[in-house]
């Protein structure tokens, strides 16, 4: 078994007994990586109620991007004629795509589980943890309660989908990211509720694979957290591909013999075959945190300081349950910081949330880091902006690109890059050089002229954007 130590499953602690550990970790997403070699001679309890590896591995980043890749292949075939290459999409074998994705992921989950159950210094509790007091937990393992105490506890319990009340109360079967990727067959029609990351990625996946997609979002644009130019540009493109109902919510669902009736807040009703809910995710805080002295923000996140310490002595938190960012690379970073801090109380490291990038793997791809133009203005910067079209560079000509842009926001007095917002092919990779410059304090000029840019690579669009910024 991959990564696993062979041998008998260790006997679990019996019911009614309190077992004390050096460290107890709740959640095996990024929490799983807190068990570093520093804990080789320590006793560690790892508690997981569902799938080992958490959201990203099982129902998030990794499977979605594997589906996105298949969607990109289908899109490339469909669009081939514009390059003088005649091709035809003969069909999409959904079960094969699905089984290829989970044929790779499920064994990794099983291997992670096996390793924690049989690992040299970890005891796995396969159940739901709740706090009963300071650093005291009860884990419900199939109805049997096991008590765990620890010198230090890490809360890494992630987040869970928010389901609007009219949908939850309708009694009609709906899907979220937790189960949509395992459906038996593609529906003819799909209604996606929400206009953020998850809606944009799944709308791309399913429409590319041949599903007729309707997006229902309460805002007047998709991806409203992005720079206004990106959000507007993407919304326009999306409205050409999908039936997008802006400014609407779902008032109710009704199961009809051959379809689902989706009643919209504007009074209209549309027919669909499947409803996917993607209206945000809320922190999944273990029960009983109040008994343990752990405070929460108004939005439900666990309060942590810059070192990952909660308001309770010896209790730490990381990832979606406490972070202002619901992103895997942030959860991983926070896990590294907490892992260090657990064993170096006199040399605490801080979370680095200065330049947190994100990408939306939709079509076209979107990537961003730093301030939007409006945020930079509001912050009082002397703002200079350049919007560079991919289509005005050599590689953009090759791609016949008409929609893609790199938008840079900088301070015209200091020369510092303040933000980067990309929409177009490979945006999630092209942006890395800009993240690097911001993280290491390189000015826009240094970045543009302090290195070679390979000609005529796609990255020239970034070089040209940098050269287009005007400084005092
Ligand atoms: C569809 C989708 C696509 C995404 N794509 C990306 C992407 O491309 N890039 C990116 O950066 N981010 C992406 N994300 C976000 C990313 O998945 C999360 O930010 C990240 O997984 C959070 O990690 P975590 O360790 O905080 O929580 P999780 O990975 O959710 O882990 C928490 C674990 O805790 C367990 N748990 C919860 N409560 C208890 C309890 N009381 N007792 C025991 N166990 C418990 C859960 O079962 C879970 O396994 C995506 C998210 C979704 C939903
Ligand atoms: N590529 C990535 O990094 C990636 C991919 C997927 C998810 N994620 C993470 O997961 C988080 C959750 O994703 P998400 O897309 O669910 O949330 P989101 O916050 O990105 O978007 C939620 C959307 O739902 C809309 N909405 C909310 N309530 C509604 C209602 N009742 N009716 C209609 N629309 C409604 C909002 O206006 C918004 O457009 C993201 O914020 C992101 O941090 C990241």
TrEMBL record:
Species: Calidifontibacter indicus
Entry binding sites for NAD(+): 194-201, 280
Active site residues according to the UniProt entry: 455
Protein name: Mycothione reductase
Keyword flag Nucleotide-binding: yes
Positions contributing to FAD binding: 65, 157-159, 320
Cofactor(s) of this protein: FAD
Phylogenetic lineage: Bacteria, Bacillati, Actinomycetota, Actinomycetes, Micrococcales
Cofactor binding remark: Binds 1 FAD per subunit.
BP-aspect Gene Ontology terms: 2-oxoglutarate metabolic process
Domain of life: Bacteria
Pfam families from the UniProt entry: Pyr_redox_2, Pyr_redox_dim
Domain FAD/NAD(P)-binding: 21-334
NAD among keywords: yes
Family, as annotated: Belongs to the class-I pyridine nucleotide-disulfide oxidoreductase family.
């Amino acid at each position: 078994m991959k990564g696993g130590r062979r041998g008998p499953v260790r006997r679990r602690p019996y019911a009614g007994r309190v077992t004390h550990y050096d460290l107890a970790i709740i959640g095996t997403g990024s929490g799983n990586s807190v068990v570093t070699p520093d804990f080789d001679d320590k006793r560690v309890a790892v508690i997981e109620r569902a799938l080992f590896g958490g959201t990203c591995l099982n129902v998030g980043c990794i499977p979605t991007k594997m589906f996105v890749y298949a969607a990109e292949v289908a899109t490339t075939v469909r669009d081939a004629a514009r390059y003088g290459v005649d091709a035809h999409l003969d069909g999409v074998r959904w079960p094969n795509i699905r089984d290829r994705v989970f044929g790779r992921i499920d064994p990794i989950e099983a291997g992670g589980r096996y390793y924690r159950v049989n690992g040299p210094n970890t005891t796995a509790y396969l159940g739901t943890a709740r706090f009963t007091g300071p650093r005291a937990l009860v884990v419900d393992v199939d109805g049997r309660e096991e008590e765990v105490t620890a010198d230090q506890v890490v809360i890494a319990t992630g987040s869970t989908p928010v389901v609007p009340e009219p949908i939850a109360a309708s009694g009609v079967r709906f899907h979220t990211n937790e189960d949509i990727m395992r459906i038996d067959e593609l529906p003819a029609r799909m209604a996606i509720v929400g206009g953020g990351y998850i809606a944009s990625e799944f709308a791309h996946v399913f429409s590319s694979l041949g599903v007729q997609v309707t997006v229902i979002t309460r805002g007047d644009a998709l991806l409203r957290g992005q720079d206004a130019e990106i959000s507007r540009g993407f919304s326009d493109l999306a409205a050409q591909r999908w039936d997008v109902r802006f400014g609407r919510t779902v008032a109710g669902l009704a199961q009809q013999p051959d379809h689902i009736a989706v009643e919209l807040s504007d009074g209209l009703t549309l027919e669909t075959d499947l409803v996917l809910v993607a209206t945000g995710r809320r922190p999944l805080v273990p029960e009983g945190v109040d008994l343990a002295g752990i405070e929460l923000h108004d939005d439900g996140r666990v309060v942590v300081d810059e070192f990952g310490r909660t308001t309770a002595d010896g209790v730490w938190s990381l990832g979606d349950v406490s972070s202002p960012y619901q992103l895997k690379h942030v959860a991983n970073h926070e896990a590294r910081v907490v892992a260090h801090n657990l064993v170096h109380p006199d040399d605490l490291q801080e979370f680095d949330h200065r330049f947190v990038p994100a990408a939306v793997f939709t079509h076209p791809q979107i990537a961003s880091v730093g301030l939007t133009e409006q945020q930079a203005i509001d912050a009082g910067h002397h703002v200079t902006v350049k919007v560079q079209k991919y289509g005005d560079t050599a590689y953009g000509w090759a791609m016949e690109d008409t929609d893609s842009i790199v938008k840079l926001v900088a301070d015209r007095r200091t020369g510092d890059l303040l933000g980067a917002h990309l929409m177009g092919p490979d945006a999630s990779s092209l942006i890395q050089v800009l993240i690097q410059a911001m993280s290491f304090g390189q000015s826009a000029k240094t970045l543009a002229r302090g290195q070679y840019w390979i000609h005529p690579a796609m990255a020239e669009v970034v070089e040209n954007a940098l050269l287009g910024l005007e400084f005092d």
